[in-house]
Write a structure and sequence with these properties.
Peptidase_M20C, Peptidase_M20_dimer, 6-stranded mixed sheet, protease, 25 strands, 9-stranded antiparallel sheet, elongated, single chain, Aminopeptidase, alpha+beta, 12 helices, Alpha-Beta Plaits
Length: 486
Amino acid sequence: MTTEIRQLQPTEIWRNFANLNAVPRASKKEERVIAFMKAFGENLGLETIIDDVGNVIIKKPATQGMEDRVTVVMQSHLDMVHQKNNDTVFDFDTQGIEMYVDGDWVRAKGTTLGADNGLGVATIMAILESTDIQHSAIEALFTIDEETGMTGAMGLKGGLLEGGILLNLDTEEDDEIGVGCAGGVDVTAFRSYNEEETPEFKIGYTIEVKGLQGGHSGMQIHEGLGNANKIMNRLLFDGFENFGLRISEIDGGGLRNAIPRESKAVVAIDAIHEDAFLLEMALVLNTIKKELKTTEPDLDIVVSKCESPKKIMDLGVQEGVTRALYATQNGVYRMSADIPDLVETSNNLARVLIKEGNIKIACLTRSSVESAKLDLANTLRATFELTGCEVEFSGDYPGWTPNMDSAILKVMAKLYEDLNGEKPHVAACHAGLECGILGTNYPEMDMISFGPNIKGAHSPDECAQISSVQKYWKFVLEILKHIPKK
């Protein structure tokens, strides 16, 4: 079936894609594809560099008459996600991807296709080997490990590239021009506390929040979905204010990049207040359900009796932590002033773990504006420090601030409309892309992201649209002809 793939139009892309897909290239196992790309550049007689972390850079001079144009960095990542169906027999370490044509789509037999980001890589290979395509000086940047840490982009040093424009070929909708993305930082608060013996007059209850939808803490943070940690804290705060509820333990949420779906707490209340407590909890949970009835129709809050816990939190610490959690920003903090409907800055209160004398609260703060990201992170830090927590920032990666005055954006928007008779969708996303990281060492570089239609990336359902690749290739060629002068 590889022969059939190689004959698709444009053959320049599909032939190189087939060659690339014959090489195993899992994230963090890119040795063979690095060697493959090095040999490709050297066989063309082009300057080929492998940097300290394994990124491959291939440089090609401008074609005749284009020497006065801005040097262009064309960038894609070499690694791909390796996933297969349970009933598919396939060894990613030794086998090349088995592809086939299904109408207007190219698919793989029970595995990921590798169109993400293999079609971008193949496009750049086609430009590098061409003898009849007009272009300014090209610096091809093939990064590693995009899918599991972006360590290639993070490790790229300043000074290796001279280009003034970067074309990132890692967008998966052919009518979209990407101009920005969010950066992020993990904010973690922690402290220890003294446990107290639970008084004999108190009885035990568990409170469970479940049935929430959850979702991506970047792409879905604006949808008004319920956060189990915030809902749980609201219940606990109310129970303490009215009935002296004491917390034994809380276990809520999970991954930082997921809106928490569930939380469970073990608490103790005065036996004399049991009936009033249950009535109050019923009123509060009905209120919360009404508030979230549209976005969270399956929300369930269960309050049930259990054995009285042996230990409870120190009262002063409990008061401070529940107040801090109430004050913790969750959800959208600021919308973009430049791009309609784009979330600029947000926070996800992702994890609350209180147990056996230790507290851990984990957040993921995102923003497409670095200063805003730090500002919100410091807001969280101050909130938690007021209650005696130590706060740690980690996993910091930069955002890509949208530049609506970008020179290459104006060129590309006009070319797209001329070619297709409609305006492109100029967009930014509230998640991470390599552009933001690359911009750290190349802050003056004008960056754009685009690509052909790819569906089901990261799954065995991944497929690439043949007609869209044709549309995209024409766009690439026109862009290279119209690169601005230096």
